[in-house]
Amino acid sequence: MAPVYFAFKKSKSFDTTFLATAQHRQMLDQTLNTFGIQPEHDLDMMQPGQSLSSLTSRVIESVTQWCERFKPDAMLVQGDTTTVLAASIAAFYCRVPIGHVEAGLRTGNMESPFPEEMNRRLTSPLARWHFCPTELSRHNLLAEKIDRNVHITGNTVVDALLWIREKLNQQCLSADEVARRTGVPDHFRDAYLRPTNRRWILVTGHRRESFGDGFERICHSINRLTSEFKDVGVLYPVHLNPQVRAPVNRILADNPQVALVEPAGYQEFVWLMDRCHFILSDSGGVQEEAPSLGKPVLVLRDRTERPEGIQAGTCRLVGTDPEKILAEACLLLNDSGEYRQRSQLANPYGDGTAAERILSIVESELMGSKT
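RESULT FIELD:
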């Protein structure tokens, strides 16, 4: 949302407010600091051990009260989080028009990802504007009989990525500084981050459908991979959820080729993506960002709401199956031609101007209605 916020802030047509629920306090603060954003209103909703139902009810109540007090002309939400659905319900109750950024993504399975697939499906009928990243996401909405104000804009995540990369280029951020900020151990920094000719893999994972056996299989796959490739390192910023951290620490902590660190700030994470060999991840954002940096992604999910990357060849689905993970990782490590071909594919998710398109659409309709 940062590029959208910046675009609307520059417009003379609107008085724009950033409303944060902070359903993930620490991760939100890292990202806001990266973009230099200070929310005008911060609801500070996160509670230890919060359930989905308690978070949903608290966000609905708090955002409803905010809407009743400030009476916005429109509210923009992005993605498929609990905040998106709950804030959309609150805005709908207050008769505030909703713009859904990154609309139309679907897996076709309500259990995967859970609860995100449900969140985005239920948000769509509530929204007035649907800002789709691709033609496929637009078709998904049309198939659900949502056919008004459906716009293809590209994904704002590409805008954000290119903004951060330009900032990194200006700063000339060093491997030593990134290692210091992210807590990368000295031995891993010296062996993999400082040299320009050493191969290492970046890993992220957080999806609920992989809790339990799924994360154990992923971790065992990483151990097998490093056993087969003694010169390859693995850097894993571990998600804060205890159901992720427990198996990751238990299975991978003693592997000398693996560095487990705390979740990286967005700026540092872009630096890491830009310098790794390829990425193992279940993140939707990574599937969209990595192609702009020329990095293949092995998607740790059985299905994805972002099939454009699969179709383009920038991403491959491997799920949590150790044999698939190992086979696809070995292909990228052993076949330089395959790696080169996949790293040079164009990003199907946008050109970095999505936020400006969204501003133009909302500005045209809202300001036109006031004349």
